[in-house]
Structures are given as structure tokens and as C-alpha cells.
From TrEMBL:
InterPro entries: AAA+_ATPase (IPR003593), ABC_transporter-like_ATP-bd (IPR003439), ABC_transporter-like_CS (IPR017871), BCAA_Transport_ATP-bd_LivF (IPR052156), P-loop_NTPase (IPR027417). SMART domains: AAA. Gene3D superfamilies: P-loop containing nucleotide triphosphate hydrolases. Residues 2-231 form the ABC transporter domain. Pfam families: ABC_tran (PF00005). It comes from Cereibacter johrii. Keywords: Amino-acid transport, ATP-binding, Nucleotide-binding, Transport. This is Amino acid/amide ABC transporter ATP-binding protein 2 (HAAT family). Belongs to the ABC transporter superfamily. One of its GO terms (molecular function) is ATP binding. PROSITE patterns: ABC_TRANSPORTER_1, ABC_TRANSPORTER_2. SUPFAM superfamilies: P-loop containing nucleoside triphosphate hydrolases (SSF52540).
Length: 231
């Protein structure tokens, strides 16, 4: 599905990713963990073509992503829910979803499925995105990504700062997408969430994946959490 091999990437002269290799598989949740500044967000941004990849290969079902214009990448069926959500604040809920639908040429059936998943959005279709609560904004950011009918979904700490009911809803959504065969990449720092959701866990350290393990091999007290996450 998705593979990164020996990827170097960064911001101008600041190299962040250093020979990073990573794999995400269809129908699996791969959690990405690591200390602050390890390069987790930058890895997602490299996949999305938002940072300069200076070396290495990024492949989606064998097709090269590195070097593509950033607007081409969502069109291939890659949804990205960045930290901070990046919604179009002055636009309504309906308009934000429309942008997702147009990007990949999807129509009302897809929209309907997204609104079934998040009924709260249906009640607020005409409301400006900037006036939604934090949890509703996160639903909209995920809903917009799902309007692409993605085969790969990248989620950057999607439950940060949200209340328990919203966290449960987002986790249910992740499980449902996995069940539909979507490859989910989830940057997540909470061990309990990772053990609950992950099929595999990739630990990022100073710009590379230092270790990938099946989640079944980890327990809350596993030494890898202390070593790579510092908890
Ligand atoms: N726009 C930028 N310009 C220069 N350096 C940046 C930029 N964005 C991030 N960095 C640097 O890249 C490094 C990796 O940042 P990144 O956001 O990928 O880390 P992270 O693992 O996601 O951390 P966190 O857990 O804190 O979100 C950091 O040292 C950061 O300061």
C-alpha cells in the first residue's frame, strides 16, 4: 500500500527526516510514536508533498509520490487530517465538505455516508467552520478527508484536547475505516489509545523509524515506550 524508503526531508536547510523507512498496510492501523520533534508530523507532511523530499522513495501501490505537486496527492485517495485541522474557517460545514468531494470527484452518496458517520455535522451544515466547537471541528476535518473516499488516511493526534465522548467517536470511526480496508496511519502519543487501536506501532527517533512492532507484542509497561516516547 504505502511505503517510504530511505526518505530525507526537511525545511530549507533543516533536515528532519534522515533515511526514514515506513510501511502502512490496507486494513491496518499503524500508530506512529516518538518524542516531541522526532519528525512524526514531518513524515506525514512528506507523504503529502508539503515538505521537500531530497532523497528516497515514497510509493502508494507502487506509484511514486515524491515530486508530485501537493494538490495531486489527495486526488490519489490520501486523506490527511493535520494537527490544528486547517479548516477553511469562514466557509460553512457544507462548503468544507464540498471541497473534499470535489477534490476526488465524489458526489452525494459519499457526502451522505460522511454525514451518517457524523450526524452532528448534518445539524450544522450552514454554520461557519470557525464557530464549531473543537470536537466538531475535528469531526469536520475527518469528514472532509473521508469525502475523498481515501484508501490511506493520515491522522495527526486527532483526539488531542477532546472530551471522552468525542475521543470514543473518533476511535470508532478509525476502527470502522480499518474494517473497510483503509490503511490508517495515526500519530498518537497516548499508550492506552495506541494499545487499543494499533495493529502495528512505528517508533520514530531523530528522523527515522527506529523500530516497528506488532501492537500485540506491547504492553503498557513495555520498555519501548520509555525509550522512544519518554513516558
Ligand atoms: N516549518 C518549519 N521550519 C523549520 N523547522 C521545522 C518546521 N516545522 C518543524 N520543524 C522542525 O522539525 C522537527 C520535527 O518536527 P515535527 O513537527 O515533525 O515533530 P513531531 O515528532 O511531530 O513532534 P511533536 O510531537 O512535538 O508534534 C522539529 O525540530 C521542528 O522544530
Amino acid at each position: 500500500m504505502l511505503t517510504l524508503e530511505g526518505v530525507d526531508a526537511g525545511y530549507g536547510r533543516v533536515q528532519v527526516l534522515r533515511g526514514l523507512s515506513f510501511e502502512a498496510r490496507a486494513g491496518e492501523v499503524t500508530c506512529v510514536m516518538g518524542r516531541n520533534g522526532a519528525g512524526k508530523t514531518t513524515m506525514l507532511r512528506a507523504i503529502m508533498g508539503q515538505v521537500a523530499v531530497t532523497s528516497g522513495r515514497i510509493r502508494l501501490d507502487g506509484a511514486a509520490l515524491e515530486g508530485l505537486a501537493p494538490h495531486r496527492i489527495p486526488q490519489l485517495g490520501i486523506g490527511h487530517v493535520p494537527q490544528g485541522r486547517r479548516l477553511f474557517g469562514p466557509l460553512t460545514v457544507a462548503e468544507n465538505l464540498e471541497i473534499g468531494l470535489m477534490t476526488r470527484g465524489r458526489g452525494s452518496r459519499t457526502r451522505e455516508r460522511v454525514l451518517e458517520l457524523f450526524p452532528r455535522l448534518r445539524e450544522r451544515l450552514d454554520q461557519a467552520a470557525s464557530t464549531l466547537s473543537g470536537g466538531e471541528q475535528q469531526m469536520l476535518a475527518i469528514g472532509r478527508a473521508l469525502c475523498l473516499e481515501p484508501k490511506l488516511l493520515l491522522l495527526d493526534e486527532p483526539t488531542e484536547g477532546l472530551q471522552p465522548s468525542m475521543i470514543a467517536l473518533i476511535r470508532d470511526t478509525v476502527r470502522r475505516l480499518r474494517g473497510m480496508g483503509v490503511a490508517v496511519v495515526l500519530v498518537e502519543q497516548r499508550i492506552e489509545a495506541v494499545l487499543d487501536l494499533a495493529d502495528r506501532v512505528a517508533f520514530v527517533e531523530t528522523g527515522r523509524v527506529a523500530l516497528t512492532l506488532p501492537a500485540a507484542d506491547l504492553s503498557p509497561a513495555a520498555p519501548q515506550f520509555a525509550r522512544y516516547v519518554g513516558v
